[in-house]
Design goal:
The chain has about 170 residues and is α/β, with parallel strands linked by helices. It contains seven helices and five strands. The radius of gyration is 17 Å and the shape is globular. Bound molecules: 5-O-phosphono-beta-D-ribofuranose. 5-O-phosphono-beta-D-ribofuranose binds next to loops. The site of 5-O-phosphono-beta-D-ribofuranose has 11 residues, from loops.
Length: about 170
């Protein structure tokens, strides 16, 4: 039984890394352990199977799967494990990521993948943290502080804008 939270971030290609980096940083900010991998559902299906076999042994609790174009990676991972999979659609193609979004969000009944916005790295990490916060109370506290800080920022900006347009 883990005493610290752990997330796996899997991306279909290293070309996804610049966007995925923001999810990695968010997990680091919250002190969540992460394993980061490049595994393609299409190009390396055997590698994907090997990864899935070790999920339980490594005690991975949530997966963030980033993929672009015919983005099957999150769905295939969801089909092969019982832990929650968060799909992160990449804006990696001539279709501006709409293809990735629809591939990931349109999972058939019975096999859900939680889907965030195109290139929504930070939200993918935050959703993973919210899931983990059910088990790790310190994450719930950190999330509350994160939201308080965000709200303070909006109040400060509102103050500035109001003064400028009085
Ligand atoms: C997907 O194909 C990857 O997730 C990536 O977003 C997209 C393009 O991959 P590369 O051709 O740049 O390796 O599998």
């Amino acid at each position: 039984m883990r005493s610290t939270p752990k997330v796996a971030i899997v991306m279909g290609s290293d070309s996804d890394l610049p966007i995925v980096q923001k999810a990695i940083e968010m997990l680091e900010t919250f002190g969540v352990e992460r394993e980061v991998r490049v595994i393609s559902a299409h190009r390396t299906p055997k590698m994907l199977d090997d990864f899935v076999l070790k999920i339980a042994e490594k005690e991975i609790e949530v997966i963030i799967a980033a993929a672009g174009k015919a983005a099957h990676l999150p769905g295939v991972l969801a089909a092969k494990t019982l832990i929650p999979v968060i799909g992160l659609p990449m804006k990696s193609s001539t279709l501006d990521g709409l293809d990735s979004l629809l591939s990931i969000v349109q999972m058939p009944k019975g096999m859900p993948v939680a889907t965030v916005a195109i290139n929504g790295s930070e939200n993918a990490a935050l959703l993973a943290i919210q899931i983990l916060a059910l088990k790790y109370p310190y994450l719930a506290e950190k999330l509350a502080s994160y939201r308080d800080a965000m709200a303070r920022e909006v109040h400060e900006k509102d103050e500035i804008v109001r003064k400028n347009f009085m």
